[in-house]
Structure formats: structure tokens, C-alpha cells
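Hi R.,

Here's the input for the UFG complex you asked about:
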Amino acid sequence: MKQAKTILVVGGAGYIGSHMVGLLGELGVNVVVLDNLSSGHKDAVLHGQFVHGDIADRMLLDKVFSSHRFDAVMHFASFIQVGESVQDPAKYYQNNVVNTLNLLNSMCAHGVDKFIFSSTAAIFGEPQYWPIDESHPKNPINPYGWSKLMIEQALADYHQAYGLRSVCLRYFNAAGAHAEGLLAERHEPETHLIPLVLQAASGRRAQVSVFGRDYPTPDGSCVRDYIHVQDLAQAHWLAVQYLCDGGDSNVFNLGNSQGYSVQEVIEAARQVSLRPIKVVEGPRREGDPAVLVADSSKIKQLLGWQPVFADLKTMVQHAWQAEAKYCC
Ligand code: UFG
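And here is the predicted structure with UFG in place:
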């Protein structure tokens, strides 16, 4: 019988990390979660051992790596707000780059050699064509995107020099929530479209703004490629298995290869919630490309990834399960 794997999930109390931990629990994997709870929630950690701490703390990392024999590390503990990264780049370079290197260095020191990295579509910058495949030029237009691209580069170098193998998963727009309602998206403050639209539906928010109506898209609003958070988690699990089976370092774009406009998201939310949603027209948000759609054929072909919840309405439905309880 194969021995159960042991995985360190850094940032496992956050939105995507907690769904990952939920899946690992279902799969019978041993999990240690390390999270500083700066934006995560301890009650979202449904499985495993919880360690409260920061990846900036090398002594703590060394202690964690000395106490367990990890097959792999998954890293979800990043700051993710594009606008904030422009206002306060130091915060992003410190955590997303310096602290991540601290984590990688501690892994190398303890002989842990497999790493799954949460990268982002933001490394591509303004798309030159779409759907965006892995070889699309990388020209980030904000510090958030740069911070992720720097770690992708560091990982390539760490592989060459120290034999640390990694998979970088470049998420497009993570969305939805646990299908059985066990987990939800709980960002504070919330900046993402789907939860904001649903908060306007439940009455927690008076309205939602459409950031720009003059884009070169069919209805003038921005088009994004939404991917269900549980399908994202499944991709991470396939990536771990790939590395454990001896796979080489690799990078994959991760979306549904299907674009939906802001207007279409609002329509889906109206149909799912059966509630009125007040919409106002706002100016463009700085740094928003008109269209971001992934070409995910590589991960489908190489890792056999298949999304289960590819339909936008299903993602909105799962997110609404969590939001509906706030209806006034
Ligand atoms: N939007 C609105 N109104 C809002 C909020 C968002 O119109 O109140 C629009 C945005 O302008 C954008 C779309 O909805 O066109 C989606 O916006 P999100 O903020 O939900 O997501 P982003 O596409 O900006 O960003 C997400 C992640 C980033 C990541 C990026 C990569 O949050 O971390 O995808 O594609 F870098």
C-alpha cells in the first residue's frame, strides 16, 4: 500500500488555500497548514495541523521542516491586490518575493524538493493575443505581477542549482466556493467581482460598479476567464502527483479558456440569486486589460486536468450559497 503523502500548505487558511486543504483532507493526505492569519480564517482550515506563523520567520520555518518529512510544499500566502501593489510595492516585494525566498531557502536546507507555486495571469501584462498560452510574452504592468514573475524566475534558477523542482500554476480568475457550502470567499476588504456582485444581491452592499464600459469587447465591459476554486485545487493535486512521479519543473496556465464580461457576470448573478442588483457605471480601473482568457490545453494534455465546474452560473451558484445567508 502506498504511504499517504504529507504536504505543507502555506496560506492554507485563505480562500484558495482552504479549498486546497479541504481537498487534501478528502484525499487522506497529511497536512500541515502554516498561516499568519493576516487575511485567512482559522475556522476555514478543515483538516490537518495548524501552525500560526509567518514565512518571514526563518526559525519557525526551520522548526516546521525539522518536525515533518514533507513530500511537497504548496504556497498560497501572497498578497493579491493589483491596485494596492502599485500604491505600496514594498509590501508586495517583501512578502511575495523576499519572504517566499525565505521559504524556498528553508526548504532547500531541509532537503524538501517539490514546490507548487500560485502564480498569476498578471505576469503576462497587456495581452498581445488570446487565449494566452504559456509562451505568451511576460511583461507585468504592476508590482504584483512582477513579484510573481520574479519567483517564477527564481524557481527556474533554484531547479538548476539546487534541484528544487516546481510547478507554477498561473491562475486566471479564481471564483466560486465549495460545492457543498463548507467554505467560501471571505476577503477583507473584498475587491473581486463575483463576491461584490453577490453582496449587492444580498443587500450587504447598495450597488456594484462596472469599471469601464468602453473596452473593445462585445458589451464594452472587461472579459475574464473564471475558474472554480475546487477545479483550481484539483490542478494543484495533479501537479503534486506529477512532481512525485519524477516530473520536471513546469509552468501551466489555468483557466477555462472561456471569457465572460462583467455584464455577463452580473446577469448570471441576477439569474442565480433571483434578486435585483443595482449597477452603476464607473470609470476604468487602472491596470485592467480588456480581455484575459487562458489557453489551458497544456495542463489538460500533460496532467489530465479537467474542470468539473466550468460553467459560470455554477460558480456563481456556489458563491451564492455562502452569500444568501446575509439576505436582508
Ligand atoms: N470589476 C468591476 N467592478 C468591481 C470589481 C471588479 O467591474 O467592483 C471588474 C474588473 O475591472 C475586472 C473584472 O471585474 O474587469 C474582474 O475583476 P476582479 O477584481 O474580480 O479580478 P481581476 O481580473 O482584477 O484579478 C484577478 C486576481 C488577481 C490576478 C488577476 C489575473 O484577483 O490577483 O485576476 O488575471 F492577478
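One thing worth noting: The chain has a mean pLDDT of 96.

Cheers,
M.
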